[in-house]
């Protein structure tokens, strides 16, 4: 990923930092996050800072903050991480409910995917999604990922999506 982040028409995407703890605290406690991602027990600013540290210091984890360029207002995150139960890295995203339905998730995830496709280290990029997360499934398909198989991880019924980046350059 570019050191200074990625810019799109409307968004600036950069690595999350401890300065983003207030937004992360709010985001991880939104109804959508709790329903589709799960409770991360982040209840205070200090919890949010510890959560950010855990994510940003772990090997194989990239956690990006998405901001509206003009206002420099944080609106969501895009993640790219290597999960123990997956052969390749997994892309994910979450946006504050005030900014859903405006195309930001697609714009941000596509920009990150486009950068990742340039790196031959990632011949495939995966995504996992709960079966009932219809909006996220639609977005994954719009991004060019295809259903691969069902997974049962930690008693969660997940769908695995994949994009072969080696052939999409």
Automatic annotation (TrEMBL):
<dbReference type="Pfam" id="PF13302">
    <property type="entry name" value="Acetyltransf_3"/>
</dbReference>
<dbReference type="InterPro" id="IPR000182">
    <property type="entry name" value="GNAT_dom"/>
</dbReference>
<dbReference type="GO" id="GO:0016747">
    <property type="term" value="F:acyltransferase activity, transferring groups other than amino-acyl groups"/>
</dbReference>
<keyword id="KW-0808">Transferase</keyword>
<protein>
    <submittedName>
        <fullName>Acetyltransferase</fullName>
    </submittedName>
</protein>
<dbReference type="InterPro" id="IPR016181">
    <property type="entry name" value="Acyl_CoA_acyltransferase"/>
</dbReference>
<feature type="domain" description="N-acetyltransferase">
    <location>
        <begin position="11"/>
        <end position="167"/>
    </location>
</feature>
<dbReference type="InterPro" id="IPR051531">
    <property type="entry name" value="N-acetyltransferase"/>
</dbReference>
